[in-house]
Amino acid sequence: MAQIKFGTDGWRAVIADDFTFANLGRVAQATVRWLKKRYGDHPKVVIGHDTRFLGREFAEHVARIFAAQGISVRMADTFTTTPAVSWATKHFGCNAGIVITASHNPPKYNGFKIKADFGGPASPEMIAEVERELSDAEPPAELPAFDDLVSDGRVELFDLNTAYLNLLREKLDIDGIARNLKIAHDAMFGASQGLVSRLLGADRVVELHCDWNPGFHGQPPEPIERNLKELAEVVVRERCGLGMANDGDADRIGLFDENGRFVTSHEILALLVKYLHKEQGLKGDIIKTFSTTHLLDKMGQAYGLRVETTPIGFKHIAKQMVERDVLVGGEESGGIAVKGHLPERDGIYIGLLVAELLVRRGKKLSELVQELYDEFGPHHFYRIDLHTTEEKKQAALDHLRQTGGLKEVAGDAVREVQTLDGFKHITDRGWVLIRPSGTEPLLRVYAEAPTPELAEAYVHNAIEQLGFAEVPAH
């Protein structure tokens, strides 16, 4: 029997290897037990899925297991985004939301995300409770047909995408964006396809990869620069003011300015802190993960806003957003949430909020990024993902534990090693972080420095010291 373990954002596994209908049934049954222990005999859930292979069939399988045991199910009538499911979970007063998605993982993966009743990722404590139910969890041997459950009302199909778009129309200046900005949108064959055009109008949006392709054309739907070269070219060629891309379930964002330059998630977070605090007069804490820019620390000090760092994984940020007054929360991987929306990453909302910022300020995105660096100094980021064996990965981590971390990187002395989540080496000019992925078999190496060259030097030197000779993917 396969060992099932939830990572930083749900359970993910390779389709037809560990992600099978049988194992999904075990996870669903464990979730049923958890729901009933926590919420009584008749919990309510929302279920959705993205565009991955067999996503609909997997989602219907979960719905059958839930509904057969007295759980009331609302299910999206087609593929939808993770933030839409999170919103619906809270809006309809449900106890949990389930999304069949592997987010940005390679096409061969699928996954199972749990959303809490507050409209964000289930907390680590909730996930631990579900995992404790897994050991002997087996769904009923006989399950009603999905169509019969719909017919008798135990599963209700509804148009979640339209409801979600109406929410965005209420929260954002959609008319102002549509009048003043032309946007290129890359859905990366994921669940956001067609949604930005429905909001702004087809004549205001240049669409890329907005068609059904469960294999994602062989590329992981992760909105990072190296995966978005076509989007960068389209922005310039079509004279767009903004290029935005979303991952497979549309909770992450990738942006390009009008010149086709990639705008990092660190820069997006900083832009939103400035916009919400300085332009809209909002206050609150800044919550960032361990791999996120120290530019936010400088901004917090300048603006009188508290900054707190969490382990990596948006579930840690969501918990803080529910419990306290948070202005902006975000992570290096492109998951960002802001005050006034959801305690959840929402790639479409964040992309359009930046578009609203451009319209309100009457400036180009490149100019707004430069404003940040003029005020707080340059901050350049670099990351490499080392695809290696589990044995080599663990050997590198053991070495860091035994030695207390690296003593210098690229000639700069390490003055402090922080171990909140991995090994973060602080120098007088920046930092380099080494940590294993929580969802994939790889080792990530990140760095931030005042120049792009130094950030790259930090990463490559750290990799060399760890004894990796293979060519990394970054």
From TrEMBL:
Domain Alpha-D-phosphohexomutase alpha/beta/alpha per the UniProt entry, residue ranges: 4-136, 163-260, 265-376
GO biological process: carbohydrate metabolic process; purine ribonucleoside salvage
Keyword DNA repair: no
Molecular function as annotated in GO: magnesium ion binding; phosphoglucosamine mutase activity; phosphopentomutase activity
Keywords, in A-Z order: Isomerase, Magnesium, Metal-binding, Phosphoprotein
Alpha-D-phosphohexomutase C-terminal domain sequence ranges: 403-462
E.C. designation(s): 5.4.2.10
Cofactor(s) demanded: Mg(2+)
InterPro entries: A-D-PHexomutase_a/b/a-I, A-D-PHexomutase_a/b/a-I/II/III, A-D-PHexomutase_a/b/a-II, A-D-PHexomutase_a/b/a-III, A-D-PHexomutase_C, A-D-PHexomutase_C_sf, A-D-PHexomutase_CS, Alpha-D-phosphohexomutase_SF
Family of the protein in this entry: Belongs to the phosphohexose mutase family.
Name the record gives this protein: Phosphoglucosamine mutase
Source species: Rhodothermus marinus (strain ATCC 43812 / DSM 4252 / R-10) (Rhodothermus obamensis)
Lineage: Bacteria, Pseudomonadati, Rhodothermota, Rhodothermia, Rhodothermales
